[in-house]
Specification:
alpha/beta, transmembrane, transmembrane helix, four-stranded antiparallel β-sheet, ATP-binding, Rossmann fold, about 25% strand
Length: about 240
Amino acid sequence: MKAANAIQVKNLTKTFGEFTAVNNISFHVGKGEVFGFLGANGAGKTTAMKMLIGILKPTSGKAQVANYDITSHANDVKKNIGYMSQRFSLYNDLTIKENITFFGGIYGLKKATIKTKTQALINDLGLHDEANKLVGSLPLGWKQKVAFSVSLLHDPQIIFLDEPTGGVDPITRRQFWEMIYREAHKGKTIFVTTHYMDEAEYCDRVSIMVEGKIEALDSPKNLKTQYKVDSMNQVFLKLARNIE
């Protein structure tokens, strides 16, 4: 496996009994790339991501994340990535400041560093008036922005985002992608799952999963050219019809 890639996957498979959730997928993600992992709900995106971040063991196949094997060095993988789950990942009964302090401690940051990063995060998001409010009182869009920022506290070079814009309004979705771009411009690798096909346009490359398999993988521009359509939604529909 090439160290030049942030993520390298070969023949990765996950079965649950007789059900195959992820079926023999192979791909790589270059360092500094914004990689979209697309597919309808139930396509296997989240299962694949859970294997890559070291919280679910594959049935077969191999993968490396940040140059660490996901099976034999799962703890090292976890230490070297940022992760924002599909379900809201902060504690609703803690304030924004308390959440930052808590997760900063989990990431092993020193108290002085946590204090500095807390102030920087609050300044960056413009949440001075809300800093001491319970996270549970925030609108969903703001919760997601805070969760994303907290996942960056330890300055990981690879960031996994599982359906980060699910359930938020279009304006907040666009603002969230602006935050993603800002991190990508710093050289960080972004791996993002989504079922919003229009979000594929924001990625350098995308893979499209259908029923556990990667059925297409290329840049949005090349995929639209290949399938002779004008949008990624149309690419997905053509793929789905071909498989049926």
